[in-house]
Amino acid sequence: MAPPNRTARVAVLGSSVQRSRSSKHAAGRARSAVVRRLVLALLVLGALALLTISFRSPTSGALHNVQGTGASILRPFQVAAERVARPFRDAYGYVAGLADAKSENAKLKREVRELRAQSTQNLAAANLAASLQKLMNYETGPTYPKDYRAVNTSVISFPSGPFAQQIAIAAGSDSGIGINTPVVSADGLVGRVTNVSHTTAVVTLITDPDSAVAAQDLTTGVSGLIAHGPGSTLILDQVSKEKLVQKGDVIVTKGTRDRRYPDLYPYGIPIGRVLSAGPSDIASFLTVQVAPYASLDSLDSVAALVATKRASKLP
Fold this sequence. Notes:
alpha+beta; six-stranded antiparallel barrel; 2 helices
């Protein structure tokens, strides 16, 4: 059986052993740190010395020979590294070039769309300008009706279907336009205003089934009513079979010949040219087909004819 003080002696001896071991480890670590710092300082000094010698040495000498020998020895490793790295560098370049190409392609497509839109706008503006110029030429021409001023305006909507024979224009009562105001293009009669607001108006075309225009053959003087015909044509109705109307004759508005029966349209507005004329066994009148001068399905601009004189009062 161990004496009671043995445990205490063992504890004291163990603690002293542990302290000696820890102190030895600490001293070893301190020496290692000093050695590492010393080696690092020597390497730095050596590098500085080599750089100084390299810069100050002539183009030939032992050091340069050593450098050349080292470069020759390392050359195969450089070539191998270059060959290994080349596929990765090429792949990177391909991916980068592909991304740049896609970006450039998207940019070019965007520029093409912008240029196409600008070209379309310029073409539309050129067509509108040409149409307005034709209207101005018509206004100063011999067939322009007297006592009327022209309100030149653009067409803002077209017929919505084959049975809708109306257009909308960008001018209204603020410009003096009212119900039944005649509307023309530079080529001929278009129709009359049937609805009007302050800044816009609705024009019913002469091809509408409910439209009727007092007209006259400019060559023979034969009178009739221009009405809706087959397709996009017109007919000169109410012409007696005894009258003479020939192919190619020019049809114009008849205008008001009697103050008791005022007409909506002034005299002399061109309507169209006769396509065919002849009698029919089943018709009471001469069958006269007329092609309108105005391109009613592709109007860019028109002129509303606003009277400058008030109508005379009936006696």
